[in-house]
Write a structure and sequence with these properties.
Elements lengths: L27 H6 L11 H47 L9 H10 L7 H17 L4 H7 L2 H37 L1
Helix pairs in contact: 2-3, 2-6, 3-4, 3-6, 4-6, 5-6
Length: 185
């Protein structure tokens, strides 16, 4: 299953610019919404946005811990809500493919409850992309019922919550299995 909002070629053809003519990457709302241009990559912009979020999340957790990440998620959520609303007003488009700040917030939530670990971040990335693309209940309901910037941001937070729960269970099971094997050997 593909994510119709984020995982196909932006624009109609390969020669078309990824941003509408009414927008500029120099605008703070566009810069944030595209997560510093990562959403302008033509194939799978949602995946690129999630990948671009990972180093930022890593640095926030390394320097400020999980509480810092929680605060950053709140800030990104409100900035994304504002930026997505602003773009919708300028273009008339809702949840455009190049808007990936929602993936940044959702990816951050997916990693909120696990320690800094490259392997866990990779698994968390995969879990988040799975739920963001699949959109199980209530992610799909959130996406279809909430409009504007709030809807853009909220469905990815719902996908991030699913991913966070599954990643935390995975982490606990991994720790338990490691402890059992450590006692055996």
């Amino acid at each position: 299953m593909t994510d119709p909002d984020n995982d196909h070629t932006s624009g109609g053809g390969n020669n078309e610019p990824p941003l509408p003519a009414t927008l500029s990457l120099g605008d703070p709302a566009v810069l944030l919404a595209t997560w510093f241009g990562s959403g302008l990559l033509r194939r799978a912009p949602g995946t690129w946005g999630s990948l671009a979020a990972l180093p930022c999340i890593w640095l926030v957790v390394r320097d400020f811990g999980q509480a810092g990440l929680a605060g950053a998620i709140v800030v990104v959520f409100f900035c994304g809500w504002w930026a997505a609303n602003w773009i919708e007003e300028k273009t008339g488009e809702n949840d455009s493919q190049y808007i990936v700040i929602d993936e940044v917030a959702g990816q951050g939530l997916a990693l909120l409850f696990v320690p800094l670990d490259l392997y866990l971040y990779f698994v968390g990335f995969l879990f988040f992309r799975f739920f963001d693309i699949l959109k199980p209940w209530p992610v799909h309901v959130v996406e279809s019922r909430l409009k504007g910037g709030l809807g853009v941001m909220a469905d990815d937070l719902a996908a991030g919550a699913y991913a966070a729960l599954l990643l935390y269970i995975f982490f606990i099971l991994e720790q338990t299995v490691s402890d059992v094997f450590a006692r055996i050997t």
